[in-house]
Fold this sequence. Notes:
The chain has helices at 59-69, 131-135, 151-155, 157-163, 166-171, 195-208, 227-235, 249-257; strands spanning 6-14, 19-27, 30-40, 43-54, 79-86, 93-102, 117-120, 124-125, 149-150, 175-180, 186-192, 218-221, 240-243, 261-267, 270-275, 280-281.
Amino acid sequence: MARAATQFARVQRVEADQCGFRRDFLAVEEPLEIRLKFQSQGKMVEQSLSITMRTPGHDTELAAGFLLTEGIIQSHGDLASIRPAKTLRAKQESCNTLVVELNPGVKFDPAKLTRHFYTTSSCGVCGKASLEALRMQQCPLIPKDRPLVGDDVIRHLAGKLRREQSVFDKTGGLHAAGLFDVDGQLMGLYEDVGRHNAVDKLIGHQLLDQRIPLNEYLMMVSGRSSFEIVQKAMMAGIPMLAAVSAPSSLAVDLARQFGMTLMGFVREGRFNIYTGEHRVQLSQTVSPP
């Protein structure tokens, strides 16, 4: 049975000239444990990999996207299965624990992990390894000169993203990540209480459909673009990332070093380009700095 993304709450609304009780929607937030099953020294080993606070729904996509964007797998072919974990009652399955089994040929050394994958809905994964450590991962190559996207397309991304946020309309409390083609057509959108989870769900869906790397698309996210969001886009081979709010300094550094186009404040018909401006086709003359 599918888990609900929203639930009712009784609230007291206070306005300028009146107050009263009403029913309102809340975005559901629950923990999801991702367990990894892999071959080690000739036998299958299972261990906990991540606990993340997420909005229930599309958990398989979330797990697949997380493994890809964290560099644990490289492609759909690395996955043997993703399934709910068995509870103490053998005939029941856990709604909040997934077991991801890697194919026997996929090498995974837990000793090489530089941190524990404990994440929260507010800040994403904290305690990241350095940029130098990230360079050592097997990142997809991002094409240097494509795609090319017109500035008029980018100006309308925020509106298109917002119009498709069905759960946000009810709760006002979810982030979103959307994948767009060069003409601004929405190819997929996911919502979650954690912006990094929304990105993983979006990328995980594309991974399970065997469409990685996403070299010909751009991603738009609600909120800000952090180091983690840029990293996840980079690991999926996405050359262009746009956000409703501002990027962090480390996000800009990472995007510049890996040749990504990073845009912020994409709303109300305007936007800033922080890196990779060569992929944006401008319809007006650029004034000198």
